[in-house]
Amino acid sequence: MRRRSLHQVMITALVAPAPTRLWTPSRVLVTRSAAERPHGQRVLARLEAAGVSDIELLPGDRLPNLRGDGDRAAFMAAKQTMAVVVPPPSKRRLQPIPPSADWRMDLAEGCPAHCQYCYLAGSLSGPPITRVFADLDELLAGLDTYVGRGAVTSGTAARGAEGTTFEASCYTDPLAIEHLTGGLATAIEHFGTRSWAGPVQLRATTKFDDVAGLLDLPHGGRTRLRFSVNAASVARRFEGATSPVAGRIAALGAVAAAGYPVGLTIAPIMPTDGWREEYGQLLDDVAAALPPGTDLTVECITHRFTPGSKATLTDWYPRTKLEMDEAVRTTKRGKYGAVKHVYPRDTMGELRSWFTGAIADRLPAAQLLYWT
Ligand code: SF4
Q1: Is residue 228 part of a domain?
Q2: Looking at the domain assignment, is residue 97 inside a domain?
Q3: Which residue in 31, 42, 235, 266 could disulfide with 61, CB within 3.0 to 4.6 Å?
C-alpha cells in the first residue's frame, strides 16, 4: 500500500461526510427591517441560491397570522415556514442559561424537525415557525460587554477554563438551518478571529450533520460543537426529520478532525428496553469516530416534561408513544414553582451510575460537564 503524507491525511480528514438531510422551507417570509439588515440580505441570497421559490418580502415588520384553524394542517404549514425577522431589543439583553453557558445568544427561534419530546414545545409559544434573526451583526458586535461576566461556567472550578460561554442553540437547532442562513459560520468566525478582552467560547448543539461549511473556518478553538445523540430506538421512534444518529456521529468526527473542541449532548436519556446495550453501542460508535486527542465534553440530560410541554406535544403528535405519564414520574418544582416531571429517584440513580461508568470506560478522555 502506498504511504500517504501527513498533508494528504489532513486533507482526507477534512472532507465532510455528505449531509443526510437538508431542510427546504415551503414558504419564507421576510420582514422589511430584516431585508434591510446585512445578514437578512445574506440569508435572502442563500435562499435564492438554494432554489427556495416562495419568498415573500413583507411591507412591514408584522408577520401574517399563521395560526390557521389551529389544526394539523396549520401546524405542518408553520413547521414548513421560515421567517426572517429582527427581534425586539429586549432579546439582545442576554440571559444566563444554566447549566450550559453563561449567556444565551439566539441566532434563531424554532426548528423544522419533529422530535416528539421537543423541549421547544414548552418554551416557545405560537405557531412553530422557524424565525431567523437578521440582526446577527449587531448581536455579535454587542458581545464584548459580556466578556468576563457570567456565573454559570465562569468562575467555577469545573468549567472556569472555558472562558465566558455563549450558547447558540437554546431555542433552535442552528445546523438545521445553516445551509440557508450561514449564521453559525459567521458567529464561529467572529469568535475565532476577534481580539477578545478575555477567553470566550461559543457553544452549539445539533441533531443535524451538514458540517461542510464549518470545517475550514478560522474557529481558533473557540467554538465547541456538540452533537445531540441518543439510543438507536429513541432516535428512530421520536426524532422525526433530523439527521440519523450515524450521520451526526460522522459529522462529530469530521469537526473534531478539523480541530474543533467537540461535545456530546446525550438527550433526552430514556430507560427504554435494552437501554444499557443501546447507549453502550452509541458510546462505542462515538469512540470509534473520534481522532486521538479530541477535546470532548459530555452533557447528560434525562427526559422530563412539564404540564405545558405535554399539552403542546400531545396536540402536535397525538399518536405519540412517548411516555409522559405523571403517575410514574417524580414531580419537581423549580425556583418559581414551575412543575416538571422527572424519573423517580431510583431510576435516576441507576441511569446516572451506569452513564458515569460507561463514559469513563468508553470515552476516558471526555469531561462529563453535568448530569440532569
Ligand atoms: Fe426540537 Fe431539537 Fe428536535 Fe429541533 S432537533 S425538533 S429543536 S429537539
Answers
A1: yes
A2: no
A3: 31
Per-residue confidence band for 2, with pLDDT thresholds at 50, 70 and 90: very low
| Ligand 1 center to 113 CA (angstroms) | 6
Which CB contacts under 8 angstroms, 24+ apart, belong to 334-343? 338/306, 339/306, 339/307, 340/304, 340/305, 340/306, 341/304, 341/305, 341/306, 341/310, 342/302, 342/304, 343/271, 343/302, 343/303, 343/304
Is residue 360 assigned to a domain?
yes
Closest to 23 measured CA to CA, from 217, 238, 231, 206: 206
Grid cell digits, residue 334: 423549580
Answer yes or no: is pLDDT of 8 > 60: no
pLDDT tens readout for residues 39-57:
999 999 999 999 998 999 9
CATH number of the CATH domain containing 226: 3.80.30.30
Q: Number of structural domains, the chain? A: 1
Domain extent at residue 298: 210-303+343-372
Residues paired with 167 in a beta bridge: 104, 203
Q: Does the pLDDT at position 305 exceed 80? A: yes
Q: Which of 106, 107, 120 to mutate to test the pocket of ligand 1 (most atoms within 8 A of CB)?
A: 120
What was the pLDDT predicted at 69?
76
**Cβ 118 under 6 angstroms from ligand 1:** yes
